Amino acid sequence: MPVKVATWNVNSLNVRFPQVLEWLAGERPDILCLQETKLVDARFPVAELAAAGYQSFYHGQPTYNGVAILSRRAPEAVCCGWPDGTDGQARLCAASFGAVRVVNVYVPNGQSVDSDKYPYKLQWLARLRAFVAEELRRWPQLLLVGDFNIAPDARDVYDPVAWGEGILCSPAERAALGHLLDLGLHDAYRSLHPETREWSWWDYRAAAFRRNQGLRIDLILASTPLLARAQAVVIDGGARAAARPSDHAPVSITLGDEV
DNA sequence: ATGGTAGGCTCCCTA
User: Fold this and answer.
1) Is A192 helix (H, G, I), strand (E, B) or coil?
2) Choosing a second label site near A36 at 20 to 30 A (CA), which of A105, A121, A222, A248?
3) Spatial distance from the CA of A189 to the C1' of B7 (Å)
4) What is the pTM of this model?
């Protein structure tokens, strides 16, 4: 049976919960990774998701950030945050489903290249690389998914000249993404669609969605054995057109059976 | 004209 894995920055699971339930019912993914749940763990809607057929693994905090993995089957070998527990921001969690490892990230936005949040973003990406290198050692079949807050290259930006080398597009961020890919990961959407220009995020401001001014910053990075199984990678822009939408669209990958 | 909107332990901060 093919396996469908999705990622979605929901910008508050509390507000977006009806849309998440509707999307799960319509798309029926095996696994859905969420970012920006903005929920403390005590308020995670475990029972409602169980009624919809999904188990919940979640790592939240008040007000900001928050990641979760919803899955039809039980997650194994779960972990959240850095192994040494030093980062106070809830941006990372991982779980295994048989041989497939799923690492879910909400990469810091960085705000602007001259913000103090920018070096924090670069440092966070360097730590992520070290973490994923260890994960790959144990689980060669790995998906690194989430909101990367990095547009990989000019094809992923509606107006690459206007965005220039600003936040989400700066050379250091793109180099950090390149260092992740150097571990043996592949941008699954771009591997299957070499030239297509599609976006996964549109700013709430300036009527960006109506004008289709977006960036592709929500990514699924697949290790080589999983890329070989990739049958489809879909960005569901329809979800962004819904009433009271998240500013991000869900992205999903369908993996065929192992040969 | 450096704008605009959305969310949250909301009167500021993050995105």
Assistant:
1) helix
2) A222
3) 29
4) 0.98
